[in-house]
Amino acid sequence: MEYNDTYQTIARKSEEVLFKEKGSKFFGYAFPIENEEEVKPIIEDLRKLHPHAVHYCYAYQLGTAPKISYRANDDGEPSNTAGAPIYGQIQSFGVTNVLVVVVRIFGGTKLGVGGLIAAYRTTAQMTLEVCEIVEKTIDVHFLISFDYKNMNKVMRVIKEKKLEITSQEMEIDENSGLPIGKIITKTRKKNAEMIFDIFDLMFEIDVKII
């Protein structure tokens, strides 16, 4: 079975870009994000940075197929003239786990629907063009639980399969009074089934996907 277990995103927050149209200024920013809770604080920071702006329009996409979530926000601009063209550029660049914000400072001349769409699309494009786009793997996380005496067996597999440990702890079992090891490790999606089976077949080792 072929797994598509990679995705593209931006390496870091973008530089500020500026697009001007008939006196209006459009400031563009892109941010790597992991969840939608990160969006609101970023918008609030941009409101403080540009207190005289009238629109803080944005779009974001999270996740990979088949579990993709996205949102496009016009923030008071005519419907579908800001958020949608910004989101269109996210799709065009093929990136996910990204937020693109375009802040508009009105210059006194109305741009019309077509002008707004073009301005927001162009600013979003310029913003993503200055970003470093990187490829990342879609990872699966495992919780491995074991008696302390079996730690060497577990660590040998982790080392042989080059698994990354994201957390590791020891605790005392309430019943036996003996130390229990708990390790959270991760591997890329295409290897997940094989790794799970290795641990699942090991005596006195408990593994589950989290």
UniProtKB/TrEMBL annotation:
Pfam families: Impact_N
Domain Impact N-terminal: from-to ranges: 22-127
Protein name per Swiss-Prot or TrEMBL: Impact N-terminal domain-containing protein
GO annotations of cellular component type: cytoplasm
Family the UniProt entry places it in: Belongs to the IMPACT family.
Lineage: Bacteria, Pseudomonadati, Bacteroidota, Flavobacteriia, Flavobacteriales
A Gene Ontology BP annotation from the UniProt entry: regulation of translational initiation
